[in-house]
Structure formats: C-alpha cells, structure tokens
Amino acid sequence: MTITAVGCQANERMDTMKKRISTVPFKGTPEQEAKLRAVIDEKKNVEGSLMQVMQEAQEIYGYLPLEVQTIIAQGMGVSVEKVYGIATFYAQFALSPKGEHQISVCLGTACYVKGSQDIIDRISEVLGIGAGECTPDGKFSLEACRCIGACGLAPVLTVGDDVYGRLTKADVDTILEKYK
What we know:
CATH topology of the largest domain: Glutaredoxin
Strand content: 5-15%
Shape: elongated
CATH superfamily of the largest domain: Glutaredoxin
Largest sheet: 5 strands, mixed
Number of domains: 2
Low-confidence stretches: none
Strand order of the largest sheet: 2-3-1-4-5
Helix content: 40-55%
Mean pLDDT: 90
CATH class of the largest domain: Alpha Beta
C-alpha cells in the first residue's frame, strides 16, 4: 500500500467521524427551554462556565441542536460560532439526537482494515443516515467510534449493549432487522 493510499484511507475515516448537524426537526418543549434559561441565568456571570452550560443543555435536550446553541450563545453573551466550535471540538457533545437504538461502528485500526467502513456504508444505505445522524422517526442513530475494545472480533459494531463481531456488510441487514 502506498503512502498516498494510506493517507486517503485516513481521510475517509476522519470524514466518517465528523460531526454533522441534525436534519431531524427540533422538538424542544417550553419546559426544556425554561430549564436551560434558568441554568444560563445562574451561570452567565461565572467565568469559564460556558462548557458547563453546554453540558447541562445536553442533559436537558439529549443533544445540542442549532436552536439550543443559539439560546446558549445569546444568554451567555458569546457568538453562536464559539458555541458551535466547542460543540464540534469535544467528543462529549452531540449535534443530533440519539435514536431508540444507538448503533456504534468501530473505526479503530483493527476494525478499519478488516472492513468496518463497508459496514458503516451499508448501514447508511439501509437507514438513509450517515455517521452522527438519527433517522427521522427516532428509531436509529449511527455513530463511528475510534475503538470499542474488542479488536479480536474485528470488525465490530454495537447496538445499545449488544455487541456484534467478525462482521461483513452482508450481516448488516439481519442485525438491523432484529431492532425494527
């Protein structure tokens, strides 16, 4: 394998791991917004509290959609770009809601060289979503992760607490059917 080919594979893996803004319509409630505004009021004058507010907002909503990022930015007196930059930099923040069935596909080295990108591609094809996204019905979400810690079973994916290993893309349909 040439250095160029290795670089292209690394770029493909990084592209799969990028956070994407949700296409699922935002369904926040007035109660959630009131909770968030109370958190902001409590912490807006505390230096260095932006990440705390973002963490609490994610606890309230389950993720940080653009609408929530805007409320945070306005309330904390910072730009939406600053909030978005933090949300996309730190892995703990999600830009899309989590589905009822959370699928995570390992893109660690052992899994990747054994075909985990093909697994993600097939899941994306079947569910119509990419990594970091949720199906419009809220049933499934898909994440690409760096390592599940089951390298001997590569390639590996999880659906909630269920672990599936030694997979091929042909296994995807059968696995997803269990959760429909």
